[in-house]
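The material for today's practical consists of a large collection of protein records. Getting from the letters to the tokens is the skill we practise here. To make this concrete, we reproduce a full record directly below:
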Amino acid sequence: MTTAHPFDPTPILEGIRRWVEIETPTESPEQVNKLADLVTEGYRGLPATVERIAGHSGCGDHLVARSSWGQDAPGILVLSHLDTVHPLGFIERLPFRIAGDSAFGPGIYDMKGGAYLAYHAFRQVCADGARPPLSITQLYVSDEEIGSPTSRALIESEGRKAKYVLVTEPARDGGKVVTGRKGVGRFEVFIKGVPSHAGTRPQDGRSAIRELGNVIQTLEAMNDLKRGVTVNVGVVRGGTRPNVIAEEAYAEVDTRVPTIADSEELVAKILSLKSRTEGVTVKVIGELNRPPYEKSNAGAALYEHARTLAAEIGFDLIDTSTGGGSDGNFTAPHTATLDGLGVDGQGAHTHYEQMYISSIEPRARLLYRLYQTLR
């Protein structure tokens, strides 16, 4: 190794701070691109090429950093995102600071800390001189927090080419890695009724809001917590004035499903919602925007390998499933995927978001050992 202690948390945390202090809300592509500049700069002088894919549709650029070795065969794909949910200026409310074992800052836990660890582990592999058996490709996308609309095709094509996918989303509850995630569906409901005067001619009207009430009850009845199926009507709008029978109503719906079979059943049910009121139409549009990530045999073997490495490093690596989606949902159906390999901490998407400094060294070492040993 080139340095006395290549996984010393202090310089790693300094690198993470530089990434965190460039705020990167998904909807500010120029900010995301500033961070992309810094990330690209970090690969200068390493045995790697960086391809920059121009952003579109209001999103920033994506980066694909490929090791100069092993690119002729399926290798390791590392998935990270540069965007955060926090609006521009949030860093004034949540400045980078250290208190005890916690380092605070917008996106530090979800997921700049983990993305930086994967980069640092790659640098270390390059410094070793001996090349690992597989190529390493690091993909940094700009739009994960809004469902990866402009990067999904890139993630899927790189995922299909890879033998293993490592996702640097944050660890869960005390350092657990993720071997399953629910699929995520998003739907919009448009209801059209017939307006009339609510006082003088109520019988002439057909209320879109009343029909929306029926639709909401039907959707709520699809919840099945035992099976892990959730349906949430999260946004509703309708009507124009209190004395007018509402002509229009609208809702936005979020669904989460643990398996492909559940998703097929639920999506079909939601898309086929019908009006129960004569003269009122119900139209539903939407889809599953992230497929369920089920623990496959290949994924389980990858987890077992990581667990063995973690034990050698000196910690117990436990796996879990979660309801939140990630870019790992796009690769898990066809490539061995292990998620939640980023830093441990708490408060993703909140005003107290933080990572645990004590998680830097063990988790950077784990990524480094995965790079070295996967074959």
